[in-house]
Amino acid sequence: MCNCGSKRDNYTNQVHSNATSRFETVQEKAAVQQVQFQYNGKTSLTVIGNITGTRYRFTVPGVILAVDLKDAAGMSYIQMLCKI
User: Fold this and answer.
1) What top-level branch of life does the organism fall under (predicted)?
2) What is 33-84's CATH number, 3.30.420, 3.30.1380, 3.40.5, 3.40.50?
3) Of 34, 58, 30, 32, which is closest to residue 46 (Cα–Cα)?
4) pTM for the full model?
5) pLDDT in tens, the chain (84 residues)
6) Among 27, 56, 78, 82, which residue's Cβ finds the most Cβ atoms within 10 Å?
7) How far is the C-alpha of 66 from the C-alpha of 41, rounded, in Å?
């Protein structure tokens, strides 16, 4: 009696399990790769990330935004922004 069907099912389950764990790892990395900045100016401020091109809008003094880690180095040079 051939047992090919169960081997195929085991392989399919293993591939699906690996794909799911890789997806979760990518989500976890995305959540970790952010830095928070607080705006200490007097009005509002819009900054465009020098690496990602993301537009960060600090609407009021004291607001805290999550910034992509790739843009954090450039934003640290802005005196009105404080890395938390």
Assistant:
1) Bacteria
2) 3.40.5
3) 58
4) 0.62
5) 555 566 666 655 565 555 555 555 666 655 559 999 999 999 999 999 999 999 999 999 999 999 999 999 999 999 999 999
6) 56
7) 17
